Amino acid sequence: MSDNKKSEIKKSPGFLTGDRPLPHDLNAEVAVLGCMLLAPEEAIDVAGKLPPNSFYLEKHRFIFKALLDLSEDPDMAAIDLITLSDFLRRRSELGKAGGEDYLIHLMNAMPTAANIESYTEIVLENYVLRRLIGTGADIVNKSFDQATPVKELVDSIEQEIMDIGNSRSRNDYVALKDLVKDVVNHVEQMHNNDHQATGLPTGYPDLDKMIYGMRPGNMIVLAARPSIGKTALALNLAANVAIETDNPQPVGVFSLEMSCKELATRLLVSTSKIGINDIKEGALSTSKWTQIMHAAQRLKEAPIYIDDTAQIDIMELRAKARRMKRDHDIQLIVIDYLQLMTASVGSNSSREQEVAKMSGSIKAIAKELEIPVMVLAQLNRQAEQAGQRPKLSHLRESGSIEQDADVVMLLHRERDAQHEATEDQYEQGLKSEAIIAKNRAGATGICPLVFMPKIMQFVSYTGIDDEDVPAG
After folding, report:
1. Catalytic residues
2. Which of 34, 49, 97, 223 is within CB 3.0–4.6 Å of 109 for a Cys-Cys bond?
């Protein structure tokens, strides 16, 4: 290595103990900048995915940022040595960028821009390695200091590692002009009723028409009073995504109330459509056993992952959700239920503040993992007053939940009707409603459902009652 290059390196940031330089490849950095000058229209589109600080040398960072800014300037007809030099000079950065002679050196360094993708990848890989090393050093220092609670430290570390991984493929910002084409295609897909344009289908067509499926980044709140069936509906939705579809998607379930075995039993009942009482009473014919075994085989192949840690802390849940996403690429998370979770807040904080932290963290998980997260919640006793449907204000500790949620679905059924139902009515199912009380991207309204208590399953309401069928 020449003395000049050694001098350049020693002036750059990021040396470790013992004067050991961090990973970098100056030739690749020169190649990227040279390609951007040689063929700006083609090369800038490729190199633009690099963060500005992905270059090791400071002067390379100034040049790269200037090239990006020039490419965004609508008044700039062309990008070349003259326009770049003038742009840097007007920003008083030409000297920091190495001067005109260095820009000429970059221009002459590359005969062709054909390999810009390879050069960009090399620069990006070294940038990621430097971030990993910096994060590792920060972890060591914070661990020795012991000033940060362990759970918070682990959470921040996992967040940083995930951010580093995402930096390999995602910019911190996106220009609107780059989004317009994708948005138009998305609107066209929606117009053509293409299911890929919406979120994960719920399995209930009327519900999908209202909320357009369970969409990535959305926090969906499913709330009800106890024993109305919110866990059953949540499991039905999970099964519809992971089992009852031609395109099964992995689902993660966090159950704070029921054990893994209890949830698996419910899934077996609803999938086999054999009543839980028939199983308990031993009233199983050969055909029913066949149904159960067939359902059991389907469940064995279903990509559903259950965690039944009781009173889980929101930080622990977030860490586990990240691991589920990394290991199994889950596309939906179900949390049963919010008020059983805990959050680390100040000793003088109220329960409402604790719920606010949990609610905000759940929304952050949905955005970070880019998947829908459904969280179950309790309604207060006022929701059971006769003659009224539940509403948003009936959410317990509701302020933050209502604010953070993209969709709030209130499950409703008249308890008196359930208690007064005849055996035949009970067998045929109980009328229920999924009230869409909040829908950030669509309309609110009521989706009618029918609850089949014996098999713990909700089905779509057909709109036909016994009294609608003509006699004779």
Report:
1. 257
2. 34
